[in-house]
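Whether sequence alone determines local backbone shape is best considered at the level of individual chains. The sequence in question and its structure tokens are set out directly beneath this paragraph.

===
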Amino acid sequence: MPPELDDDHVVAICAVLAEYRVHYLIIGGAAARLHGTGHVTVDIDICPERTEANLARLADALNALGTRLRVEGDPTGVEFPARPDLLRQMSTLTLLTKHGPLDLCFVPAGFTQGYDQLVESSVVVCLAGSELPVASLEDVVVSKRAAGRAKDIVSLPALEAHLRRGKSGS
């Protein structure tokens, strides 16, 4: 089993995305973790903006990260020279980078407009001196509920309890 996501992994990947001025939000389990829920995950999921200019910047950032497609049975992955035209056709990608696993999800469950819809309620979380764009915990819960996967359903009670504690101010 791969090691749990750590701060260095998140900061290193996000630093490259920032260097290339990629517009994105951290979503999924990594977002839940960054909201202080104690959620455990092994990769970072992001939802990139789908404009042509951003796809070009994203392709450059992915290439700088040494990105490879993650495939079952091949721990090193398969070569993936990222290009905007390829990214435009994708809805999700599971990748390996020189800093660890990275998943792209252009249309997360429950959010048909992807980044454009999620950015409205997103927040900035500071981690190791870096400002990271993160989907709101409310949106993470909505997406996990909409996905309906066993691992998401199991995590919902703890995420919802964390959300209630935050709203009550305790």
Remarks:
- The chain has a mean pLDDT of 91.
